[in-house]
Amino acid sequence: MLQEELSNLYKLQEMQNRFELLKQRLKNHPESKDLYRLKKDADEMETRLQEKNKRIHILEKELHQMERIIDDSYSSIKQVDQRIYSGQVTTVKELKILEEKRKTAHLKVEEYEEKALMIMEELDYLKTSLPQEVELANQKKAQYKEKQLKIKQEIDKIKTELDLLQIQLQQLEASISPELLEKFYKIKRFKRNPVALISDGKCSGCMVEVSVMVALEAKQYKTIVCCENCGRILV
Length: 235
Known about the structure:
Blueprint: H1 2-27, H2 32-84, H3 92-174, H4 178-188, E1 195-196, E2 198-199, E3 202-203, H5 212-220, E4 233-234
Parallel strand pairs: 1-4
Antiparallel strand pairs: 2-3
Helix pairs in contact: 1-3, 2-3
């Protein structure tokens, strides 16, 4: 009877260690850092894409405004030229005013055409690089979702095992006398593994040799035998 209880007690200890290990793995999944990094990378890529699309929209709007200003300036130049060459200008003063107006319009055209060219170059660069960045962002999202699904499956598996272990632990505790369980948990307050095996004449808990008498008593299973050095229950 005691032999079976001690055997179950050792199983209880091993099962509790497994239970604690799984709880720790559930709390700090080994791949959670990779998942966080993938999520961060995917979010950063998405933010950059949004900023780039926003920049493209702003540039297109600016380009449209500049093209309108350029068109208006060319219309103004055309009107001035028509006025100058119409033969209706009769004074030098009026001619100088018109020529100054035409010069100003030409300078405005040059200024805005240069700005428009710079905008078109930036737009060309942004739109050319955009498809590749979209593809990379989609790949990163896919990696994140794949890793997230994998971790979820592993977590669900751990939770299932924990539920099963919880039931088995309760069944094992029910098969062990209250006195032995009380001693087990009393020792566990100070030592992680309250039960130790005798292996090669040594206590597996503290690795100190046990006396022949203690080893013999432990094998007879007539009473609870503890290690003389560390106090663990010997099996």
